[in-house]
Amino acid sequence: MKKIIVQKFGGTSVADTDKIKNAARTAVKEKQNGNDVVVVVSAMGHTTDYLVKMAKDLSDEPSSREMDMLLSTGEGVSIALLAMAIQAQGYDAVSFNAMQIGIITENVHSKARITDIKTDKLKKNLAEGKIIVIAGFQGVTPDGEITTLGRGGSDTSAVALAAALNAHRCDIYTDVDGVYTTDPRVVPNASMLREISYDEMLELAHAGANVLHPRSVETAKHFSVPLRVRSSFKLDNLGTLILGVEKMEIYQPVAGVAADLSQTRIVVTDVPDKPGTAALIFSKLAEENISVDMIIQSYAKKASGTNDIAFTVDDADAEKTAKVLDEIQFGNVKIDKDIAKVSIVGAGMIDRPGIASAMFTALAQNNINIRMISTSEIKISCLVNKEDAQKALKVLHKVFGLESGKIAEVKGDLPPVG
Ligand code: ADP
Ligand code: ASP
Ligand code: MG
Questions:
Q1: Is residue 24 in a domain?
Q2: Which of 172-176, 198-202, 276-280, 281-285 has the weakest average pLDDT?
Q3: Which atom of ligand 2 is nearest to the CA of 157?
Q4: Ligand 2 site-directed mutation target among 71, 97, 173, most atoms within 8 Å of CB
Q5: Where is the domain boundary, 151, 175, 199?
Q6: Residue 222 falls within a domain, yes or no?
Q7: CA triplet 123, 128, 132: central angle to 5 degrees?
Q8: How many CB atoms lie within 10 A of CB 180?
Q9: Which residues pair with 373 in a beta bridge?
């Protein structure tokens, strides 16, 4: 049996026809290595942003069904062009959208989860020697409705396909050389990581490192898919391997830092201090498919018998959240979009005291006020004013010794992934 390699090319990697030719060459090269090749592509360049802008020009609240109809077209263009480019290089290729394959999702628009992938057609076409090109980001419900997986979701399409096909590896080709200790476009002296654990990558992606869609990492971890992030334009560069923590030596308490500028803070003051209040608020939000991130409930104010609850949601869900709270008619609602979340992530912080205090001290010394704090076993996040986010990122990156040349070299060879 041949090995199956899934490759994914992001928007910048297929932004024009020269770049599409380059992606085609990369797919062909993998085929020449004797492997079966499945390629997942995003929409060209900034196509999706452009489509979103047109929709917003026409309607303040475009329906999520029509948004999915619209946004799914972007990937339709790039799959056909990439298949043509591969054919022009003398190799047999065929493109499919999610409907043709059967990438089945739940019945939710704009951030659907994949529930099943039909592999018959894929296996048949691979057996015929074809390179298969598949539209990322889109899916179809069992009733035939078109869905999308959320912005950046092509990574998740690629990993889910790799899992369904039991692929040997999933390579995410992008416009940076790999995963860095923080966004190299914001902090130019960030270090590239040769490897990072699924758990750390998952936390970093959730914390705002948009190099990978969080659900792609979740899926890779769940199905143990070897995942690599590498440059579309420097093929000799091995990039970053994302793998199980048990295979790694941890040298640093903090592996990376990230900022998320697309959070909105909601404060509901004077809600009744009685059982069921939080349950009601958050179940109503869940019914509307709104994910909540940080949550803080203050001490009850004895005299008034009330409480304050603060939480954060994605900017895109802010209006919907306000509407839900309006319907419940609890307390007073304040909405603050002028905030950002900065996070430090590292499996090496487990059982190592002093990491939180080092983070808070560094922020305080730079006069950055912390508005909310949340933690997990391997992550500490602080909500700060949006204008302080970049400064906070740079300060934390330096304090935890992540600058290029300072990070401990990973010893030994990369695990054998082919
Ligand atoms: P694609 O179009 O290939 O999906 P994205 O723009 O979604 O590319 O993701 C790549 C971008 O992620 C990089 O250009 C970089 O600016 C950003 N990024 C944010 N955090 C990180 C990080 N820790 N390591 C690498 N890139 C990062
Ligand atoms: N084209 C989609 C987006 O821009 C999906 C992706 O690129 O992963 O969000
Ligand atoms: Mg992306």
A1: yes
A2: 276-280
A3: 8
A4: 71
A5: 175
A6: no
A7: 60
A8: 26
A9: 382
Q: Which residue's CA lies nearest to atom 2 of ligand 1?
A: 10
In a domain, 83, yes or no: yes
Q: Which helix (H) or strand (E) holds 231?
A: strand 227-231
Q: How confident is the model at residue 352 (pLDDT cuts 50, 70, 90)?
A: confident
Q: In this structure, how many other beta carbons lie within 10 angstroms of the beta carbon of residue 86?
A: 28
* pLDDT score of 12 more than 60: yes
The pTM (predicted TM-score) of the whole model is 0.92
Query: What's the domain count of the chain?
Result: 2
- pLDDT one-digit tens code per residue, 146-191: 999 999 999 999 999 999 999 999 999 999 999 999 999 999 999 9
Distance 326 CA to ligand 3 centre (A): 34
State which residues form the domain around 117. 4-175
Residues 36 and 158 in one domain: yes
Report the C-alpha gap between 83 and 132 in whole angstroms: 8
- Show which of 160, 175, 190 is a domain's final residue: 175
Q: Say which CATH number the domain at 22 has.
A: 3.40.1160.10
CATH of residue 259: 3.30.2130.10
Q: Phi and psi of 74, rounded to 5°? A: -55, -45
Q: Quick one: which atom of ligand 2 is closest to the CA of 11?
A: 7
Q: Give residues (CB < 6 A) around ligand 2.
A: 10-11, 42-43, 48, 74, 136-137, 151-154
